[in-house]
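Throughout our pipeline, every protein is held as a single compact record rather than as scattered files. Such a record has a labelled line for the sequence and another for the backbone structure tokens. The remainder of this section carries one protein's record, kept here as part of the documentation:
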Amino acid sequence: MKVKIIKKEDNKVWFEVEGINTQTANALRRVIISRIPVMAIDKVAIYRNDSVLDDEVLAHRLGLVPLKTDIKTYNLPSECDCNGGEDGMGCAKCSALFNLDVKGAKNPKTVYSGDLMPRDPLIIPVYGNIPIVKLAKDQKIELEASAQLGFGSRHIKWQGGLSSYEIKDGKFKFFVESYGQLPVDVMVSKAFEAFKKDIDDLESLL
């Protein structure tokens, strides 16, 4: 297998791969979108919610906010020895905590992803202008949220980007775009590492 970078800009990269078939190319594409761990809010403790959204819907919207990810510092929950922690929110080794405490003013107030207050300054929303909910006068939201590493194969909120490919002149030309949780070069590099590990694991069983 031979890989060549064609172009890279911002959170996008184009590269071509030689020496593979369609099945291998599709397997690599699926690894890119579903096997690279990124952070997402997974557990929410809601202390007050006066908004029009049910607690479950509010928690779901928070989970879909893409978060900057530090895969070197945090453990996967399944590999952490805290077993979820006493309160189910994990520990400092596997969870990044956020607080949200917002109250509606005289006019309707939109709560944005940027209103989430992180305990870890490295784990923050990729975009601060994602609307979460609107609050009327005196309505309030108060909650604590826990973000953890996960895989897109489990839930779309842990998908770090998108990937596609086309076949030209016998070569597979890939396009990968990161949603911002990880730099696109890190995302592709980790995908090839995971892909190689899968092949090595399979060969060891044969």
Summary: The longest strand covers residues 38-49. The two ends are 21 Å apart (CA to CA). The beta strands are 2-9, 12-18, 38-49, 96-103, 109-112, 117-118, 131-135, 140-150, 161-168, 171-178.
